Amino acid sequence: AITKKLVEMQGGTIKIKSRQGEGTVFSLTIPYLCVKAEAIARSSEVSLDVAKALLKNCSVLLAEDNQFNQIVAIDTLEQEIEGIKIDLAENGKAALEMVKSNQYQIVLMDVQMPEMNGYEATIAIRNLPEPKNKIYIIAMTASALKEEVQRCYDAGMNEYVAKPFNKEELLLKMARVN
After folding, report:
1. For the chain, how far is it from start to end, CA to CA, in angstroms?
2. Are 107 and 60 in contact (CB under 8 A)?
């Protein structure tokens, strides 16, 4: 009964075949999503459902000084990604310290922040010892100018998302961390 409940909770089925004097065979099927991470990183054709599955229970640092943008990003990510853990840094200096002392899979980095901007924070993170310097950083900024995008990549950011962000674009780019 316990096994049946656990299997059904995961969308699966269980079958039992039993013959007196011969024994019992239990068979169960659970539909797990199996995707190779390397394929996700190379593919631009990843579905939103696959992206959400890959991001389940991930740990994210949101480096953003604007309270409205914080609320929008946190609400969106919490609605879309099961079990996501989001920490907040209100400036680049705080983001750098949080990366040093915590384990994150992704940093969503605003580029225009007080004390230390996103470019400076990213450069500082890239100068940390491994594995901290390998963290996946996605730039988030209102400027979509070609020069601005290039400046993000030059600072060491992995991806770029313009604000206001498109939810699907952000999730798909976040999923590339795997």
Report:
1. 36
2. yes
